[in-house]
Fold each of these.
Amino acid sequence: MALNSVNTNIGAQVALQSLNRTNDALAVTQKRISTGFRVADAKDDGAAFAVAQSVRADIAGLTSANEQMGGVKGILDTTLAGLTKVSETMGNIRGVLVKLADGTLSDSQRSQYEAQYSSLRDQVTNFLSDATYNGRSLLTTGTASGVTGGDIATVRNENGTTYTLTAVEASSSLTVATLTAGGGASAAASALTGDFVTKMAAINTSLNTFGGNSNYLEAQISYNKEKMVSLDTGLGALVDADLAKESAKLQSLQIKQQLGTQALSIANQAPQSLLSLFR
């Protein structure tokens, strides 16, 4: 191939190829700097991008699971608040029952204590029925008056695995029985050793169970947060750009681009030197 040709400028072709490679590398670097990602889409690195999308999906799943468990924590906190008030009221009920078990009370005194017992029992019933959150309750197994009861299965991780909270029917298992008016000391004494003991034990069991549920959900939420931090860290290592490195590379490529442009300009001027041969 003739070196002195106006049809084929080898120098310009080489300079152009070099400049194109520099421009391509510069475009990649500028994209990394503008997005902050080494792998911003599948065109950058298909395999890495696919893994990154999977990790992002896991993080989204964990975020949703924590949001759902946060709502269930509200139900549990309301339930525990109601049960705590019931437990405190049961202490007052016991005190009244002890007085009613005294056979020396006059009819008037007994009537007053029976009325006090009924009032305290109503308080217990109200505490239990009011322990609702967003229309849900763990202290009933049925649905009534706009309140939905029954077991609650909440998701706990990104795979949708559930954790079940078992509801109790408080109206029958946690509420003390009524006392027959004028039942006398023996009825109160019987309630103290029978119904009261049974219901107090059930209340304590519910407090322990729901307290354990609450602790579990708090631990699971905390674990999910730590897991998301780990996933974020791994995701960053996989797709984030090293901006310090890219900045240095940008400076280098910009200089190469300028030099390549000058080299191409010089190469394009070479054929003009052939004109001097014809003067």
Amino acid sequence: MSVRASFSAVKTAEDQRDLAGLAEGIWQEYWPALIGSEQTDYMVEHFQSLAAIRRDMAEHGYEYWFVCAPDGRRVGYTGGREEPETGRFFISKIYLLKDERGHGFARAAISFYEELCRSRGLSAMYLTVNKHNELGIRAYIGTGFATVDAVETPIGGGFVMDDYIMEKPVS
């Protein structure tokens, strides 16, 4: 399924606040069933909160975009950062509202990143995906990603991210 999504850059303090609110809602709906409520709360606070978004943008070169439906509604968000040292783009986040999943927005986000990588002369994009996130894994395989590694990353608070690393070359 193909959808004509658009991507609106997160630029202002108001955008950042809106993004943090959207992120918390999506995370609290989707992740507790996969990783539990405690780890979900921890990850929202440390990786999806307003403070985390501002930190990542200011200190780590992250860029964020709202994923928008053809009618302009914000249906999710995405973000990541360029890695000039590897010639790749790290896609840190592609998250969609529950009712918007399965309508082609994730595929549109991957196409968005392909164009971004081409315009910046990057050779590939990669991401991490929870090993139990079957919906995400299927979506990434369906858009040309391949699993290149598996990692367990301690994130603090006694929690671990148990992920596959998936990569897609960009021609």
Amino acid sequence: MIQSMTGFGKSVVELPHKKITVEIKSLNSKQLDLSTRIPQQYRELEMEIRSKIAQRLERGKVDFLVYCEAIGKTTSAQINIPVLEGYYQQVKEASEKLGIAMPEDCISMLLRMPDAMSTESPEIDEAEINALKKAVDEAITRLEEFRIQEGAMLQHLFEEKIDNIARLLKEVEPYEKERIEKIKGRIIDALSKIENFDYDKNRFEQEMIYYIEKLDINEEKHRLDNHLKYFLETMQAGKGQGKKLGFISQEMGREINTLGSKSNQAEMQRIVVRMKDELEQIKEQVLNVM
């Protein structure tokens, strides 16, 4: 069964003083396009995490995020008092020189100044490392499950559209013989209207056969039917078939376009337009397939 490149996964693990949340989402892309946001204390694990994501997800525009929340009163953020003292003295001097009153909520203003807060990056122990790795694995697994569900929906859509094109292809057959007879009749009728015109009937038959053969669509019908079957077979091969399905849909488009250019009849052209509509929906969604 095929898989979609669209997915989302989330995992949360709790430690005695910290909660770690891992989120990962993916959209369609021709190759793996990975963007990560990881807290400074986990930077040494970034390459391992990126390698794991690349190995398991293979393709897609992937956004990976890790963030931490302190539990209880423990926090790594500290007020940088010496920096605040420096800012306060500068504000006080400016107030005296300019004759402007000091701000009423001075402390709030000072806390928003650069470097007013300092964040320490404490050493992480093995338990925290294992907890993070577990969260990463769980988030990726949930994204993979999401991709499988989306893939099942896409496969159902493709099967429906392929079936519609195959049905429309059969609807062409009743008009095929009628079309040839009409074309032949129009040519003979046009020749009969030319006064005092004589022609070699044998040569005329040869030219007629040559012209009608150019309008014959049996090869296009046969190739399109094979492409439809090959598309369904390829979907059953599992994930990693997205590019191949895209190539097959392009070949289907070429045969449908040739059918349209050769049809030379309003009824057949309407059928071809409906085929193109079904195929366009396939080509639009096949971009999301792994």
Amino acid sequence: MDLMILNPEVQVFINANIGTHVATLALQKNPFPNVDWITILNQIDAKTKAKDKLPHWFLSQNIIYPSKLSVEQTSSEKTASYKASIVTGDHLIDLTGGFGVDDFYFAQKIKEVVHCEINPDLSQLVKHNFEQLRVPNITCYTGDSLATLTALKTNWDWIYIDPSRRNDTKGKVFMLKDCLPNVPKNLTLYFKNTNAILIKTAPILDITAGLTELQHVKQIHIIAVENEVKELLWELHAAYSGPIRIKTVNILKDKNETFDFIWNEVASFSNFSLPQTYLYEPNSAIMKSGGFDEVGSFYKVNKLHKHSHLYTSMDLIPFPGRVFEIQNTFSYNKTAMKFFLENSKANITTRNFPDSVESIRKKWKIKDGGNIYSFFTTDENNHKIVLICTKIS
């Protein structure tokens, strides 16, 4: 960790160049010969990335950033705050500390937080940042987290783990056993030190596959931010063997959309109908959950088709996702397309439809944008249809 980067003049230069392409800056002469130029450029790049994702860090003085990639891979403050709402108690250990964003928020709920990081440079950097952020109840340990867990001999209220995929797993099916640390292999050891484990995984992990590798799963949280799924949180409790609750949350600027259901519960089923007055598209967290029968049953809306995952109703209802008013419905054919959409401007969504958005745009010369929303899908009679809509929310 190069503390020369905290020179006030260097910091002024970094802040003045937030948002500037570092490839352009790299062509310039280093105005600070005593400070490594690549380090300065990396700070500009990483801090630019942190502006929206980590506003508390961005607005604080004397923060040192790791690589831009590390900032991209860390939790956002929004998702970290949600994680902190899950945990309770006095003692939590994070076995995969990283940049420490999650631990900053855990420390607002937990009396003592331990941050474990195998990379000594990153561990030192995070310790420095916690001091600048005035967080006194986080202790940083460098080295193998299993060794730290064993050495501390503490009965933890929570163990938190964010396993990373090994480089040799690229292109392969994502399994937890392919990550570091290998959580399925170490699970018995973890439960000797705690009764509660929270695991963060990338959204690409298949829920069914994860459940085949893990034991004692009580809840799975699917977290989206502005309708983009960011992470899955697996909540494990010692000896738990009951029903698994799926909690979906879509964190928006002014509210959170939430929907919960029991995994593989047979009580829910879908009703079907042709398009009515309103159209509903579930948010991305619900889409990831696979709770398509459950959301339709709970909100009393009808599905257009078993595989379309679009819903309709006569009366307008609040719904966790996008809501539209249907203006026109027609069969997908040359005559109708020429009349309604050819050479027009519209937003296009496909659900359970054979053609891609790109091919539809090219074939019918439809420009992107505007106030018209068109859904290309399949109805309950297996007919290919197009819905012309206006957006409500």
